[in-house]
Amino acid sequence: MIVYLNGKAYEASPGEQVLQVALRNNIYIPHLCFHEKTGKAAKCRACVVEV
Ligand code: FES
After folding, report:
1. Which domain holds residue 26?
2. Ligand 1 atom 3: the closest Cα is on which residue?
3. pLDDT for 36-49, tens place per residue?
4. How many domains are there within the chain?
5. 33 pocket-lining for ligand 1 (C-beta < 6 Å)
6. Could you write out the three-class secondary structure of the chain?
7. Atom of ligand 1 nearest to the CA of 47
8. Whole-prediction pTM value?
9. Quick check: helix, strand or coil at residue 20?
10. Which residue has a Cα nearest atom 1 of ligand 1?
């Protein structure tokens, strides 16, 4: 699947989060409660982006 971030196309797997795609491609999105090993807590709202 292809997702577009800032107008550029990036590969994403089904179920993958926008934050994960961005971080893998060196696009920084601020995040406080997400960690690769613990997953999403989705409580701080620091990673909210416009869709
Ligand atoms: S990092 Fe996304 S809600 Fe906290």
Report:
1. 1-51
2. 42
3. 777 777 889 898 88
4. 1
5. yes
6. CEEEECCEEEECCCCCCHHHHHHHCCCCCCCCCCECCCECCCCCCCCCCCC
7. 2
8. 0.80
9. helix
10. 31
